[in-house]
Structure prediction request, 271 residues.
Amino acid sequence: MNKSKKIMLLLLFTFIVCVALAGCTLQDRIEEYSSDKEQCYLNTENVTRFSYKGNDYTILADTVSNGGLGEWIGYIRQLAAIDENGKILLQENVETVTFQSLADLAEKAPEAAYIIPFLNVYAAPNADDYLIVDVNGGYHKAVISKNVKDSDTVFDFKKTEESINDSFEVNPENATQLLWGGTVYQVTSDMVSDDELGSYIDILAESVTFDTETKIPLSKEDLSKIDWYGENAGQGREFWFYTDVYEIYGTDKAEAVAVNVNDNYYIAKRQ
Prediction:
């Protein structure tokens, strides 16, 4: 399944859950938490720029870990459809995005080459000459545009496509493991609270049924096959639905991440 289909599947799943649960108040919680934060605005002519308190900032390629964040001071919270030149064609509020609105975004901007999420803005912990902005799952430094130096490298929005291709996937030989490049992560029974979640990393949106002993995923043929002779009578089966992957606050994602399995976040540790 390609990445765009996974995004739509996950959004549809989330939407259905929210409709089904009468107490779904995510929007209220977001508004409460961000009520004292400064709203920032993307530059529609240049996606590498945004404004904060009247100042124009340029987003750099330099990133920091989630442990290097200062105070949360602002938010952008926009899903931006961008053309090849970095011009924003359309924006959608990520707080209210649904399966239908995302589909509409793609339909209304067919010439869009990239769709990138911009989330929160943070102060630098021990400096006042730059801010930090959450872009496409990475914490990027941002400096006042007039202070950009020749030695600075501006955020390359075109590289987001490359990062999408380098995504997490379920190990086809062990359904309780994730693969990321050449790294194997083992999903553990240790749970992670929402407060411990760091930056968003990836979407899996994949369901898998596997043999509880061998951990090998079962194919559709295996699941539909009739066991006439009772050869698999003692076989245990388990079903997992993977949704999204996040960093764990204060932990390097090269060592461990948080993955949502059956509506709970668990620690997946590098092997």
About this structure: Residues 168-270 form a domain with the Metal Binding Protein, Guanine Nucleotide Exchange Factor; Chain A fold (CATH 2.170.150.60). DSSP finds five helices and 16 strands in the chain. Confidence is low (pLDDT under 50) at residues 11-27, 226-230.
